[in-house]
Specification:
It is built from 3 helices and 6 strands; from the N terminus they run H-E-E-H-E-E-E-E-H. The protein has 143 residues and is α+β, with helices and mostly antiparallel strands. It has one domain. 28% of the residues are buried.
Length: 143
């Protein structure tokens, strides 16, 4: 193989490698203050509460509140192939299902949950139960 052909092959392999690792395998930032939440339509701007997911069709979705992400997935009876939330220091995205959560915070849609570094926080399944229990209680008729 000539040097120019080898260089072309290496360049092509690099492009393929980059394409494979920047697709749906990694989180990307939304256009902060511009992209709408896929669930409620509110603008995604609060990094502490933001979430991101890839739906089964491969579409990337942004959420202004982790509660919106949980509700969107449940209401549509789907399972995201990947999901992320902002790390507790808000510097990076972390896997949503592996994160721990704590409630009682002011969040854009008042679900109140943000990721925490504390090991005692709620697991994702517990967070999901809390969010969906809230939705059910909001739908109950007044007595």
């Amino acid at each position: 193989m000539s040097r120019s052909n080898a260089a072309i092959a290496i360049a092509a392999a690099a492009v393929v490698l980059v394409a494979c690792t920047t697709g749906t395998d990694v989180a990307i930032d939304p256009a902060w203050g511009k992209d709408p939440c896929a669930h409620c339509g509110m603008i995604v701007g609060d990094r502490a509460a933001a979430a991101e997911a890839i739906d089964p069709r491969g579409e990337r979705l942004f959420f202004d509140d982790v509660g919106c992400m949980v509700t969107y997935e449940a209401e549509r009876h789907l399972t995201f192939t990947r999901a992320w939330v902002r790390a507790p220091d808000r510097a990076a995205w972390i896997d949503a299902k592996g994160a721990r959560y704590v409630g009682g915070h002011a969040t854009p849609m008042d679900y109140g949950f943000v990721p925490t570094a504390a090991p005692s926080g709620l697991a994702f399944g517990e967070l999901r139960e809390c969010v969906l229990a809230r939705k059910v209680s909001e739908q109950e008729p007044p007595r």
